[in-house]
Amino acid sequence: MKLRIVSITFSVLFLAACSSTKSTAVASAVTTPAAETVASVELTPELAEGKNLYENSCVRCHKLYEPTKFSKEEWQPILVRMQKKAKLDDIKMASITNYLHSQL
């Protein structure tokens, strides 16, 4: 009887260990293509500066929106309104605008 309980316990632990390894492998296989896609897109120094400004200036007051959430036409009034609130000059605003447009 004792041997049977030990055998069942060992079997359950073995199956549990096998199942967690498989789900981890599947999860890493799913995330790898997304990581490769992000890594393959390189930004020019000007666009990287715009991205940096976008991420650091806008996040002070609200969450960041994906650049693809809005079209160029929809971004324009948003950027004009936010330029005043964030107190950004025209050069910084042009850099942010160029970055957002490059991501569309």
The main sheet comes to: none
Assembly type of the shown chains?
A: single chain
Average predicted confidence as pLDDT: 77
- Spell the H/E element sequence: HHHH
**Count of alpha and pi helical runs:** 4
- Poorly predicted residue ranges: 21-25, 28-40
CA(first)-CA(last) distance: 67 Å
Strand content: under 5%
Gyration radius, rounded: 25 Å
Helix content: over 70%
User: How many DSSP-defined strands?
Assistant: 0
Structural class: mainly alpha
Note the overall shape.
rod-shaped
Key attributes of the depicted protein:
mainly alpha, 4 helices
Short description:
With 104 residues, this protein is mainly α. Helices cover 78% and strands 0% of the residues.
How would you describe this structure to a colleague?
About 17% of the residues have low confidence. The chain is mostly helical. The N and C termini lie far apart (67 Å). The chain is built from four helices and no strands.
